[in-house]
Design brief:
Blueprint: E1 2-3, H1 7-12, E2 16-20, E3 23-28, H2 33-42, E4 45-48, E5 53-58, H3 62-69, E6 82-88, E7 94-104, E8 107-112, H4 117-127, E9 133-136, E10 141-147, H5 151-156, E11 171-176, E12 179-185, E13 194-200, H6 204-211, E14 219-220, H7 223-232, H8 266-275, E15 279-286, E16 297-299, E17 305-315, E18 320-328, E19 337-342, E20 345-352
Parallel strand pairs: 1-3, 4-14
Antiparallel strand pairs: 2-3, 4-10, 5-8, 5-9, 6-7, 7-8, 10-13, 11-12, 12-13, 15-18, 15-20, 16-17, 16-19, 17-18, 19-20
Length: 358
């Protein structure tokens, strides 16, 4: 396992550490998952997500390269803007979902999933028909995600930039106290007001300490609460809800799949959007007592399998079991009654709107 620059600090703060995507990561601290979850929903918490990857693209043809490579329309970006997108493969699947930062003209940063860093870099290199420079800087950067309603008030005390004017999916390069050249973006994976800080590894401990030295109480948050938070908002997790075999259309990601330009697998995905996908990613709320977990089977009756769960948890906000999963399209309508097989029991559930928590 790779250790994060702050791994020792997490241990000293009482974190339970686990192997996640080959990284030694804090899954929860002493307060427990429910309290950590509620802290982010009601106040402010900080996640160390330094396992995520950063790959930089440069070159005079970088826009053309990214337009070909990615599903979203990169030409909508200007320096200081961020875009959520995915990399389609040639077989109707997704190589990865990611964020694109436009640092400057012909200069972009791709923020990719930890488990896909090497795969993505190899994919980029293989598909690079545009003579772009591709540099994997993942081992040099740390990311701290400051998330929750009080995140703006906290950061406004320690940054030189106008954090109050920063719009959603925008960023600036500024300072956190005496640490310069920090990428400060209004993004996150919780559905709350929040920011992500990209810091060179040698300065991340100093920034961590600055975050904990304001007049606003800040709590460290682990991966387990990160998962329940993203689940309540219906955000996809790569390796669960999307992967090399799921298309962005069936995953409900048509909104980041723009057919005003040609990209990898354009023809097949355009046909799928026009004709409608065979299966769809849906939100499920369990009516019967129990928790739906990844790979549990979904039934339209007690004897016909129509899909499977991809993510499931007990929602701390709703005190209900919620799940994401794929079903045949004809069973994807809101209100449809379905069953999830949990330990040989058929638990009644219903299709609901996503996000689960507005």
């Amino acid at each position: 396992m790779k250790k994060l620059p702050l791994s020792d600090i997490h241990e000293k703060m009482g974190a339970k550490m686990v192997d996640f995507a080959g990284f030694y990561m804090p899954i929860q601290y002493t307060n427990g998952i429910k309290i950590e979850h509620e802290t982010v929903r009601n106040s402010v918490g900080v996640f160390d997500v330094s396992h995520m990857g950063q790959i930089f693209i440069r070159g005079e043809n970088s826009v053309n390269f990214l337009q070909y490579l990615l599903s979203n329309d990169v030409e909508n970006l200007v320096p200081g803007k961020v875009q959520y997108t995915c990399m389609p493969n040639h077989n109707n699947g997704i190589v990865d979902d990611l964020l694109v930062y436009m640092i400057d003209v012909n200069h972009y940063m791709l923020v990719v999933n930890a488990s896909n860093i090497d795969k993505d870099f190899n994919w980029l290199s293989t598909e690079n028909r545009f003579n772009c420079e591709i540099v994997n800087e993942s081992d040099n950067y740390s990311i701290l995600a400051v998330q929750g309603p009080k995140s703006k008030d906290l950061l406004s005390q320690i940054t030189n930039g106008n954090i109050n004017q920063l719009k959603y999916y925008n960023f600036f390069i500024g300072s956190i106290k005496d640490v310069d050249n920090v990428i400060i973006s209004r993004t996150g994976y919780t559905g709350e007001l929040g920011f992500e800080l990209y810091i060179k590894n040698r300065f991340v401990e100093k920034v961590w300490n600055h975050l904990f030295n304001t007049n606003i109480t800040l709590s460290p948050i682990g991966l387990a609460a990160r998962d329940t938070l993203r689940m309540e908002k219906g955000f996809c997790l790569y390796g669960n809800d999307i992967d090399d075999s799921t298309s962005p259309i069936e995953a409900g990601l048509s909104w980041i799949t723009k057919f005003n330009k040609k990209f990898i697998n354009y023809d097949n995905l355009n046909k799928e959007k026009l004709n409608g996908p065979i299966k769809k990613l849906i939100g499920l709320e369990l009516i019967d007592r129990g928790i739906a977990r990844k790979d549990y089977e979904i039934y339209c009756s007690k004897n016909q399998i129509i899909g499977n769960i991809t993510s499931g948890t007990m929602s701390p906000t709703l005190s209900k079991s919620i799940a994401l999963g794929y079903v045949k399209t004809e069973y994807s309508h809101i209100g449809t009654e379905l069953y999830v097989k949990v330990r040989n029991k058929m638990l009644k559930s219903k299709v609901v709107n996503v996000p689960f928590v507005k």
